[in-house]
Amino acid sequence: MMTSETAPLSAGFENSVLDATACFRVVLDAMSRPAKIHSLPVSISPPRGLSVGTVAVLLTLGDMDTPVSLAPECDTAEARAYLRFHAGCPILDDPEQAVFAVMSVERDLSITEELSLGSAEYPDRSATVILESEGLIEGEGPLFSGPGFDKPRRFCVEEQPAPLWSRVAINQTLFPRGLDWIFTSDSQLAALPRSTKVEV
Known about the structure:
about 200 residues; alpha/beta; Rossmann fold; seven-stranded mixed beta sheet; three-stranded antiparallel beta sheet
């Protein structure tokens, strides 16, 4: 009988260089143009627990120096094996040391309080939250503004918990410290860097 420990791994990028380059451009554009939804440039079969968008981000940005924390709903044997094999990411049980923290938008977001916010001397040592959802919606939700906006934009995610945007708003007051946010689904990606202002 085949178990999750012995099942073959899902494939990574079909073309590791071209696909990673395409995904990097999308992530970079998403961080440069906050609250703008981007279509994913790749098609991947993700392991159980992770969305296509999350896998695309971690295969692009993850390596042995970027430890990942997986929330319980994302933490499967398949996900751990996949990330270790394809990206080389260490999987941590302690979110305080994570560079990337992956969680579902439906979970209790108080776990973000345990993540590194960086320091005044090293604000770049903060974590990035990868928040998985069923879908991203442009033109609805809170109003976002700040660096990277030619004009304010609205953006929301399906099934978002009530405290999400208030957490993002509080996070912005910590700038240049604070968390960066990447929102993923199976076909889309958007981002909110810590400099983004939100009107809740």
